[in-house]
């Protein structure tokens, strides 16, 4: 690509850049729930764009696990908010009822208000997801920097010969 654009950065172009073959990856058995749904949702598109190869499995697993964790945290925060609203209604009848976390602030055992710990988990999940999304070109800005090899690509003897990688 840089050869076509004239290498605007003027940095030396790598002559030995890896060129892995796109591959459709199977979701590992340990990935469950929302993480598995996300895997099944994005892998076909990444494969079609030529952005998914066998060596990408760990990065894809990391992204999907972070996504699954985010969804799990969101469900827990939603439960907290509902529980808080229910307890708030009950407190009108009985003011001595202790309120649970509202999903934003938790009260410690000694009465101090702290940020809900799940919000930190949410933030970490989003940061991890973003890092993996950028690596796969799955954000608008990242797409401008990532190139793939669309369609099915296989190595044949002639291609290897032309690239100078033929082993005999």
Cα-to-Cα separation, first versus last residue: 30 Å
The helix tally amounts to 6
Structural class: mainly alpha
Helix/strand order, N-terminal first: HHHEEHHH
Count of the domains: 1
Q: Note the overall shape.
A: elongated
Counting DSSP E segments of at least 2 residues, the number of strands comes to 2
Q: What is the overall pLDDT average?
A: 84
Radius of gyration: 24 Å
Residue share in helices?
40-55%
Largest sheet: 2 strands, antiparallel
Oligomeric state of the chains in view: single chain
Low-confidence stretches at least 5 residues in length (pLDDT < 50)?
none
Beta fraction: under 5%
The strand order across the widest sheet is 1-2
Structure description:
- The chain is mostly helical and 168 residues long.
- The protein has one domain.
- The chain is 52% helix and 4% strand.
- The protein contains six helices and two strands, in the order αααββααα.
- Strands 1-2 form a two-stranded antiparallel ribbon.
- A hairpin with a 5-residue loop joins strand 1 and strand 2.
- The longest helix has 37 residues.
- The radius of gyration is 24 Å and the shape is elongated.
- The protein starts with a helix and ends in a 5-residue tail after the last helix.
Q: Characteristics of this structure?
A:
about 170 residues, mainly alpha, two-stranded antiparallel ribbon, 6 helices, 2 strands, about 5% strand
Give the topology, please:
Elements: H1 2-5, H2 33-48, H3 57-93, E1 105-107, E2 113-115, H4 117-135, H5 140-143, H6 157-163
Antiparallel strand pairs: 1-2
Structure at a glance:
Helices cover 52% and strands 4% of the residues.
């Amino acid at each position: 690509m840089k050869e076509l654009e004239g290498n605007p950065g003027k940095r030396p172009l790598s002559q030995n850049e890896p060129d892995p073959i796109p591959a459709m990856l199977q979701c590992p058995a340990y990935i469950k729930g929302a993480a598995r749904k996300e895997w099944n949702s994005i892998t076909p598109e990444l494969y079609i764009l030529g952005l998914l190869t066998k060596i990408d499995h760990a990065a894809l697993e990391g992204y999907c696990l972070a996504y699954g964790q985010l969804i799990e945290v969101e469900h827990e925060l939603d439960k907290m908010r509902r529980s808080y609203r229910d307890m708030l209604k009950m407190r009108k009848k009985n003011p001595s009822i202790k309120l649970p976390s509202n999903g934003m602030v938790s009260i410690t055992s000694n009465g101090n208000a702290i940020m809900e710990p799940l919000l930190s988990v949410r933030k970490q999940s989003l940061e991890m997801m973003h890092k993996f999304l950028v690596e796969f070109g799955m954000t608008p800005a990242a797409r401008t920097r990532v190139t793939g090899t669309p369609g099915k690509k296989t190595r044949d003897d002639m291609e290897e010969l032309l690239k100078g990688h033929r082993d005999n």
